[in-house]
Batch of 3 targets.
Target 1
Amino acid sequence: MNIHAEKLEIMKLILNTENPAIIRKVKSIFIKEKDFWNTLSKTEQEDILKGIEELEKGESYSYEKIMENHR
């Protein structure tokens, strides 16, 4: 499932719930995430975003492959 389909599925679940505890938990995830993101420097944020883009393009390496270069 792609990221957009995942988002839509989560939105449907949120819209269909009447449980306020679930809504509070979901909201707290975003508040914590937002707080964490704001503690990073601009360079760190850019590096993370670049890494996400690379992963979405399939540009990734296994842990084993990376470790081969550091032994």
Target 2
Amino acid sequence: MKLVSATELQNNFGKYLKEVQNGEEIMILKNGKNVARLISEKTRVEFLSDSLAGILSGEVNLDEEREKALREKYGLTD
């Protein structure tokens, strides 16, 4: 993954767009902090399908995750 400032990306957008088309991922920085990631459409689809496959294969218990999130949100303890 390549790190690029927002200004650099703006000044050379065509160059970075071509790199993304060739499979490169670009992390966009603003004031030194990650703010966005530029990825190809194909990569986006693969990322989403891989995430969904993880959920469907049982790697995640949605009920447990929901309960955990609610406990954290409302400061509840056992």
Target 3
Amino acid sequence: MHGLVATSRLMTAIREYHFTPDDPERDFGAFDFDGHRVCFKIDYYEPSMQLGAEDPSDASATIRVMTVMLTSDY
């Protein structure tokens, strides 16, 4: 159960992440979580997931994939 609770807390932290006005990207973030530096990255693919999405803002033709990892693994 501990892993499930930690995952829930981590996903909440990502949902509540605030980008600052000087952030050049809106699909990457990094923050401290339970003594670890964590980052997340969102990638945008076309439906077959073979290529990047032509228009990432078109939700009907884009699949979003979020990767979450420790910055030490990056």
